[in-house]
Amino acid sequence: MAVAAIVPTVPSASSLPGTPGADRNEPSALPASKGRVPGNTGIWVGITCEFVEFALLFCVYFIARAHFPESFEEGATRLSKLAGTVITLLMVTSSYFIACSVIEMRRDRRRRSLLWLLGGLLLALGYPLAKFLEFRWNLAHGITGESGIFFTVYYYLTLTHMVHAIWGILGMLWVIVRHILGIYSAEDYGGLEALASYWHATDIIWLVIFPFFYVLV
Fold first, then answer.
1. Which residues of 76-113 are buried (b: 16+ CB within 10 A; e: fewer)?
2. pTM score
3. Residue ranges, the chain, pLDDT below 70
4. What's the Cα-to-Cα distance from 101 to each of 8, 38, 90, rounded to whole Å?
5. N or C terminus: which one in the chain shows less Cβ crowding within 10 Å?
């Protein structure tokens, strides 16, 4: 009995690291962000509604274009391609900055995450400013919603998109406040992901609007 008491217990093969079944009870080494939908259910309901809304508006665009092709061809030449290009660059770059913010938060680099998010906000604020300057340029050149069917559809679609973008900007402000208060962490950053998801969706819609009005026509 004494000899048996001093014999060390040999671990089973399944408990040795590197053997099959060794890590069954160990926490996964993969980041929590993999294998799941980013954000939350609420934001994806909102994104779905946004996509449905613009799908209907794009149907209006194609119906109007089919009935008034000359108006669309002539109207596109009167728009400022510079303004459309600037807005596109602002939207794409701000989306990139917010994506970088999410990545830095996953790495538990909160300060870098906040700086990327602030940069994304500054670029996003350039969108309504650029749109205001574009509309002022349009009015100076006699382009109003009553200038033809092309411009009616153009104003309706772009103004609707800007409303969604403003909602996204307000969301950025809310997330920044929560970020500064230390609410987000490498383990819990769902609000930041939800913002990024919404802003990317809004960006994708603009990437459809831009060629429809400024390039392809």
1. beebbeebbebbbebbebbbbbbebbbebbbeeebeeb
2. 0.79
3. 1-35, 217
4. 51, 14, 16
5. N
